[in-house]
Write a structure and sequence with these properties.
The chain is of the alpha/beta class and 212 residues long. It has helices at residues 36-54, 69-83, 135-145, and strands spanning 5-6, 29-34, 59-65, 92-99, 111-113, 123-131, 151-160, 172-177, 182-183, 199-202. The chain is built from 3 helices and 10 strands, in the order ββαβαβββαββββ.
Amino acid sequence: MAHGLQIRDEESGYNENLFCIPKHYEEDLEKVFIPHGLILDRTERLARDIMQDMGSHHIVALCVLKGGYKFFADLLDYIKALNQNVDKSVPVTVDFVRVSRNDSPAENISFDGEELSALNGKNVLVVEDIIETGGTMKALLSKIKDKEPRMVKVVSLLVKRTRQSPGYRPDYTGFEIPDKFVVGSALDYNEYFRDLNHICALKENAKGKYRM
């Protein structure tokens, strides 16, 4: 599926009482949108597709912090397992970039972290948690391509269907979701909900409880 597993706009999700939810979040969630097991299964398939396309040369997996860390760790576990069971394996190294998302134009987004000079001549896999408009990712890709990598691919656990999107699509998508505010699987609201395994819709009236 080129656009990932599509969650329809009318999808109502699953009753949270059917799943293990931390007690401190039980009253704040509308529904379980994507169960943890389905996330893992889709991540395993993404790892297979990525290795088929990129597994012939040194891969640098670049995690976009903070929200991408859980998806990144799971994806790398599957990639390492595949890489250990082939006749010709390749080095897989990791790096991290922190992107400050704000209301500035995309070209003014700042990046925290390494100089990214080690990307030259490598296959670079950018791992993101969610893509909404795509402006942040385009700015990051511009920085990466300045380092002259051999290949650059982007994988995002989620892609949100929004009217603001100019049509940017990553190379690999876990799930395409409606324009809903979701948390869990390291996606946060003011740093809360990163410890929630499932991806869930957050109740609108719960946001005030977690304001900074």
